[in-house]
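@channel anyone free to eyeball this complex?
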Amino acid sequence: MGMRRGDRFLGAAMFMPALLFIVGLVGVPLILAFLYSVGNVTVGSVGYKFVGLANFRSVLQNPAFRGALLHSFIFTVSAQLIVIVGANILAVALRNPFRGRGLVRFLILLPWVAPISLGAIGWKWILDSIYSVINWALVSVHLVKPFDTPMWLGEPKLAMLSVILVHAWRMMPFSTVILLAGLTAIPRDIPEAAAVDGAGFWRTHLEITLPMMKPVIAVALLFGIIFTFTDMTVVYILTRGGPYDSTHVLPSYAFFAGILGGSLAEGAAVSVFLVPILVLVAWAMLRVAHRTEVV
Amino acid sequence: MTGETGWLGWQRWRRLLGAREGGVRVPPGILRWAIVLVFAAALSFPFLWMGITTFKQTTDLYNTKNNPFLFNLPPTLEHLRLLFNETMYLRWLGNTAFAGAVVVAITLLLALPAAYALARLTGRWGERLGIGIFLTYLIPPTLLFIPMSRVVALLGLQDSLWSIILVYPTFTLPFSIWLLMAFFKSVPRELEDAAMVDGLTRFQAFVQLVIPISLSGILTVVIFSFTLVTQEFVYALTFISSAAHQTVSVGVPIYLVRGDVYYWGSLMAACLIASLPVAVMYNTFLDRFVAGFTVGAVK
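replying in thread with the prediction:
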């Protein structure tokens, strides 16, 4: 069906304000992020000089940055592994309606819908070095000795574990509701027919349900990767990257170098390391969208 | 599990737990409840803990010999009094509500016409532009906040609530346009065609007919944008440097801590009070947000 000329003009006019806003405040800063990463901008100065890859060389020589790069991958992969396994189990358990499901859903959603900085502060109190309720519980069942309790946020390995678990906690509800939506969209008669043919729960689940949920799992995973890889809130609030830079991730390190340290150029260079993963995820998302349209 | 391992052991467990043999409604009964309860307890625990901490006397909180799950001393409202009378908490709540309201208004003003244009007026270009808009949602604040801090300074907005009001629509807009576009597409075309035969222009038909019958979609966008504003942390932390101009999600974790002293009672009260209304709002509209995220992947 042909589009009338007037409609096209009106369409452009109606779309333009939003487009200008997004170009001005997403497009321009995005280009600036790249320009800064190859320039010499600092908080104090106004000039700009092209310095090539000097910022990248300088951050790559810094062990704290190389740590942050590595932690970013550990952080994202481990948190997403926990989330995708947990969310699958939880979504299957929640599939059929039961009494109280509304309340349960609300409780399960809390970590995702409440502001994450506030949830993270809650965890900071739960993981406190002296008053940790987890440590109290561990002591009272004699799993650890009093006065020798784990310093959840004070020891490098435990701190990393805590940061990962808190982020998994935060993302679990998101993946669960997305998987649940995929699960409920599967026509009921398909798994039922498999059951009639004698397939047990696991066979039905692994050979029929899971393959049908592939696109939805992909969506949950891709959003999960973006939200985890680019997050600095959990790290910033729980550990500020410490102890001894052992929990810094790329975004938190960019914040410390660029904003607190005042070297915008170095901060921008650190942020730019996020880009390859973002591009990869965007490409994968388009593929998922494309494929499901064809089916 | 028991001494048995693997498949056989699992089968026996299932029978013990009352699984219908060969049925699809597995995991059933007790097992399902156990899974749901464990997850619900683990995921909501920090909020339960905030509630308990809020009402505990300080000496009770800081006595490591006490069972922390019990009220060893009578409950107190002291932490709440301190929070509301002696901190800027109310101010932060007000700042957040104000910023949220203005951001929602800007979002609607820009997203409604844009989404309509993409749904109806741009033909096959609309599809591509729509995907392009959606992709901008994937560009995170942690990539943009450094250049954005320069832009904000250039506009003279540093340390002002208006800095975040200007910047927040960058993440509320893409998702809102995306949601509204799907919504407008489900409105029957005949409606506008009939109205235009009756003498309305297309724009008038959009304003007088399409917007009113899309109220529930608009409400979804309002709630979604508002909750995103309450949740944002990175931009507010970067642009705003004085406590009085902060929002609740930065004010509480950063400025409620004095020096190294954590007032845990008040801090937890502040977290809980700000979290619950946002959670209730979001929960009510959840199914629509999920639909927005899974467009295409769920049929």
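from a first look: The two ends of chain B are 38 Å apart (CA to CA).
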